Amino acid sequence: MKTLFLRCLKGAAVALLATIINLSVTSATAAPNATGVWKWTVTGQNNQTYDATLKLKQDGDKITGAMIGRTGTETAIEAGKIQDDAISFQVTRERNGQSSTTKYMGKLSGDTIKGSTESERNGQTRTRDWEAKREAAPANATGTWKWTFTPQNGQAMDSTLQLKQQDGKLTGTLTGRRGETAIEDGKIDGAEVSFTVTRERNGEKFTAKYAGKISGDTINGKIEMGSGDQARSRDWEAKREKSADVTGTWQWTMTRPDGQTTDRKIKLKQDGEKLTGVSIWNDTETAIENGQVKEGEVSFQVTREFNGNKFTMNYKGKADGDSLKGKIDGTFGGEARSFDWDAKRVKE
Questions:
Q1: Which of 22, 116, 156, 260 is most buried per CB count within 10 Å?
Q2: Residues 226-276: pLDDT tens digits?
Q3: DSSP assignment of 189-236, as one string?
């Protein structure tokens, strides 16, 4: 009897473990997500083909977005929904004073939607197969990129490229031995980046075309210079500088105008370009304001009250590892003051 009881107990334990494993696998399986840019090719009248583009955004079981036509015109989708992997919506367009609606239905699997479309024309319903592919999210080109080029004379030249990415466009500057020059025609398509740099020397203009592919913090590509018989091509490999993370506790000693010194401390927390934290003085914590970090440049403000008067101190500095150097500016008693700022990150 005891043996039978133990066998039953063991069987129940095994069943419970299997249930837990099944639940874990089910919860770990990511639900289908339709958010993204989808593209496919449509064959129209006279067997002419054109590319269709669809932008979708999923919020729970609701789908919103727009269909982009051949002329770039966007038409909002209607009745968009998703249930499990089944997706559906419709697009209504107007042409020559008449409106027509196309219904889209499909199954979402990874980065592919397969299904069919239905539309009415001259009182007849037409059905077509539909297979859309999701485009890969564009790479992030924003940041500071550096590389070294060694020409025929053997003298190495360092170049620094500052890039900012927004809506498929790139802006920024290229700094080299001839100074800083704004880039032109900056574009990013997926992981592909391109731009041109035009410089003037001895009354002549020289244009260099840059094209490459981003992989993590590296751009590999080519630089094309000149034209015709003077055309030259060079390999191009740029590395993105790692942005400084200033999260931590920082201490420094400040010398006042009367020669006396005071020890100061701040606690900072960085989230992307946003900076929060507190300034600690005489065991009193004051929240910092307008904190931000951009390419290692740190800035924030601290506002305190003394004898019924408020005064604000503006902090600006450059982070380099566990060192933060810059200036502290403020107005005291109507008089502008400026202090050197040399803080070190400390462990607590």
A1: 116
A2: 766 777 899 999 999 876 789 999 999 987 767 788 888 999 999 878 899
A3: ETTEEEEEEEEEETTEEEEEEEEEEEETTEEEEEEEES-GGG-EEEEE
